[in-house]
Fold:
Amino acid sequence: MTSPDVYEDERRALFDHCWLYVGHESEIPNAGDYVRRTVAGRPLIFLRDSDGAVRMHFNTCTHRGATLCREDAGNARIFQCFYHAWSFDTKGKLVVTPSADGYSPGFRRDEYGLKAPARFEQYRGLWFVNYDADAVDLRTYLAGAAEYLDLVLDQAEDGMRIVPGVHRYSVRSNWKLMVENSMDGYHAPTVHATYIDFVKDSGGGQRKDALTAGGALDLGNGHAVLESPAAWARPIAYWEPFFGEEARDDIAQKLARLIDRHGEERGRRMAETFRNLVIFPNLIINDVAAITVRRIEPTAVDRHSLEAWAIAPAEEQAGSAALQRRLDSFLTFLGPGGFASPDDVEALESCQQGFAAAREVQWSDISRGMARQPGSQDELQIRTFWRAYASMLDGAGFPDRVAGIESPIAVEAAVR
Amino acid sequence: MTTVAADGHALRLAVEEFLYDEAALLDEWRLDEWLELFTSDARYEVPSTDRRTGGPADALMLISDTRSMITARVKRLNSRKAHREFPWSRTRRIVGNVRILSRHEDELEVTANFVVYRSRREVNAYMGRYLYRLVAVGDSFKIRFRRAELDLETLDSHGTLSIIV
Structure:
């Protein structure tokens, strides 16, 4: 949390070998559409080429290394470097080298195409990159997390899309504190007291056991989830008075359609539970008051930046009441201006400041629930992250699932 | 509108005075009084930094408050449990370049530039432009619409938007 040496080790042991989220296919719907991303420090262009295939190029000119594309998003047929005007097509091929007669006969233009990351693969429209050519395939890497991604993505009738508009902000803390916080149920009643008051004031929070029921699972390869009954309204599909009487029928119909498609048990689970999912090491998908896709980018040992998007069923079209409800619900809790996320940032930054006494106050305790079936206020999911983290940093690969390590009760719960 | 001022110059002075008073209420954390400035159908919004012209119907905003959400925001900021703002940060607002864009019936459309400095552990500046729709009430105004468009590319140095900008 405080050692620059460990921070460097993480970059090599984790971020050079793990699958890292880049973006969703809906962000680049048309040929030539691109967005820029910085993933594990590397500048990337995430784009759809002229044939409609999704690609990733390093946003680094192969001539002298200048930043090739200098706009965050757009549509292009050619990327022309402003430094010496070397130009590349959307497939990365070098197509123009001004005054080419200056190069010797041995100069081969086709060796200067844009470089691509070693691997890029998708799971249902979510695109990931891996800088290790020998990595396992993405689906294998996702292990048990794929089932939880399905529980999120299957809420859509016609696929998901990223809603335009991104929350970009930074926190003055080590990035791992954000991972912990994003799936920590124990802090909700204290850090989010004002949010819980807001929910009560708006007539919500009808399930009294919501913040204490539920549990957590180790999903393998460091991925973990916290799943609990919905503590407040969900656009799909749990009505509370916050949405207004006029929304009641619409949300009931959404629930009915979900049950039609997925059966009573799975349909209700998708509609009426919260899921806080961490895809190791740095992707958070919180399916709560709305669904946020949150990517953590470490920028220093005591600092990380975030990009957070709202992902929504494509059928919730721009201007629709359904999308409005979703975005309104999102903003009550989430984001730099929400009623809850700013207090998380405060907690993380206060921890980082507290770590200044790390020589004397050495431990961060995450032992809750080690001797019982772990509940949603316990910390199994955080231990899952840290066990994978420690094992990867030791060069030992991913460890066995937590269920095999902790108490017999936990084993029983995880198997069930 | 007749009660406010007939000529444009006097009208702008009245609007400026209103905006300066509003800024003072916020800097002094007199949020309950600030809330009284809004009409019952008011909205307050701040678009995401990558979409300065975006609206809440089709884009993720940073803030998109109805009047009841503005009330809830004030209640929260008045609490000792709004941890990001406890203790309250110190803020100082500079509002300028006030222009009246249009007048129709009971409503004025106003724009102004702003810089809001926030000091807590460190100093950050939020700068941008306001868009207001003001309704004349007696010899002053009420706010029907208040939008703060940030010129920031990201909230990298700020972390949050926990104050009212």
Chain A touches chain B through 43 residues (CB under 8 Å). Chain A has a mean pLDDT of 95.
